[in-house]
Amino acid sequence: MNDDIETKIQAAVHDPQNVGEMSGADAIGTVGSENCGDMLRMWVKFKEEDGRKVIDKATFQAFGCQTAIAVASVATELIRGKTPAEALAMSGEELASPLGKLPPMKIHCAQLVEGALRDALGGEEAVAPASAP
Q1: In angstroms, rounded to a whole number, what is the distance separating the alpha carbons of residues 79 and 55?
Q2: Mind listing the pLDDT tens digit for each residue in 31-54?
Q3: Strand boundaries in the chain, DSSP class E
Q4: Is 92 exposed, middle or buried (0-12, 13-18, 19+ CB in 10 A)?
Q5: Is 80 within 8 Å of 55 (Cβ atoms)?
Q6: How far is residue 115's CA from residue 92's CA, in Å, rounded to a whole number?
Q7: How much is the pLDDT for 67?
Q8: Of the listed 65, 109, 113, 117, which one is catalytic?
Q9: Single pTM value for the model
Q10: Which among 65, 81, 106, 133 could disulfide-bond with 102, CB atoms 3.0 to 4.6 Å apart, if both were Cys?
Q11: The 39-49 sheet, strands edge to edge
Q12: DSSP assigned state of 26
């Protein structure tokens, strides 16, 4: 990994945003990968804004590598204010974009977050995390 991405990941892990269970969540999604041992759960709360249902807040718990924690942290910030359809349209790469381009061996971390979000929002297909090389 390049130094810029590593620095951003370390910063996100050192001060992760939106960590922990959310009581009264409107949706919960869980995904795990047997290949790498990572597991992620995401809670989502909605609100009405200008006649639209949007994500008010999202929180997460992650068990696994630092990159998965960092991606979940930035993703919970990115999806705030989006409709469920807008959030479901985001790829793992988009959810991880504030960190920079992830190396191939860490793409599964972004897919893990994408899968938990899809599970929470009832996406038509939950995304299975790619196996680690």
Answers
A1: 7
A2: 986 666 789 999 999 999 999 999
A3: 27-32, 39-49, 52-63
A4: buried
A5: yes
A6: 8
A7: 92
A8: 109
A9: 0.84
A10: 106
A11: 27-32, 39-49, 52-63
A12: S
Bridge partners, 54 (sequence order): 47
Residue 65 falls in the annotated catalytic set: no
Cα–Cα distance, 62 to 89 (Å, whole number) = 22
- For the chain, what is the mean pLDDT? 88
List 12, 36, 40, 102, catalytic entry: 36
DSSP three-state, residue 25: coil
**Total length of the chain:** 133
Instruction: Mark whether 36 is an active-site residue.
Output: yes
The three-state secondary structure class of 108 is helix
List of residues 6+ apart from 112 with CB closer than 8 A: 31, 32, 33, 38, 40, 64, 68, 71, 92, 129
